[in-house]
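Re: that backbone. Tokens:
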């Protein structure tokens, strides 16, 4: 069973480990340490969701708010979505997106979006398979997650 909760200070080591894996996947080096990561997720602007299976970290989503003067409520961007490689294909990503949607509704967001790199066609295919509406193709595929309609 997958449990998804908001990130707390005790989740920071697991979260940072997964962030580093996501950076490596994209060929980047993660320069953030534990304190800087906590400052972003606990004290700062990001909301983190962590998925656990049998008590072990399985994935995370990082939600980044963006104020837009043409919207009633923030746009929330799922800036990071990561699932541990051996656990992919088990619905954890979809569960994280659903939890992000619930959070968006709770905070009165007007839009929830997620994007992916053009170098990651598997993620774009997964979002299309979930029925997410594609909203642009540059610089990479972006998708909108409905907030007020059933999904």
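Recovered sequence:
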């Amino acid at each position: 069973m997958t449990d998804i909760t908001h990130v707390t200070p005790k989740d920071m080591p697991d979260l940072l480990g997964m962030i580093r894996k996501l950076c490596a996947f994209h060929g980047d080096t993660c320069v953030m340490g534990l304190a800087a990561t906590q400052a972003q997720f606990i004290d700062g602007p990001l909301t983190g969701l962590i998925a656990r299976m049998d008590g072990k970290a399985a994935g995370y989503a990082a939600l980044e708010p963006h104020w837009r003067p043409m919207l009633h409520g923030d746009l929330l961007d799922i800036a990071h979505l990561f699932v541990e490689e051996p656990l992919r294909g088990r619905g954890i990503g979809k569960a994280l997106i659903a939890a992000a949607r619930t959070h968006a509704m709770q905070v009165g967001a007007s839009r929830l979006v997620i994007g992916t790199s053009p170098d990651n066609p598997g993620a774009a295919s997964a979002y299309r398979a979930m029925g997410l509406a594609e909203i642009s193709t540059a610089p990479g595929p972006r998708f909108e997650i409905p907030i007020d309609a059933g999904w």
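The two ends are 21 Å apart (CA to CA). Residues 100 and 106 are 10 Å apart (CA to CA).
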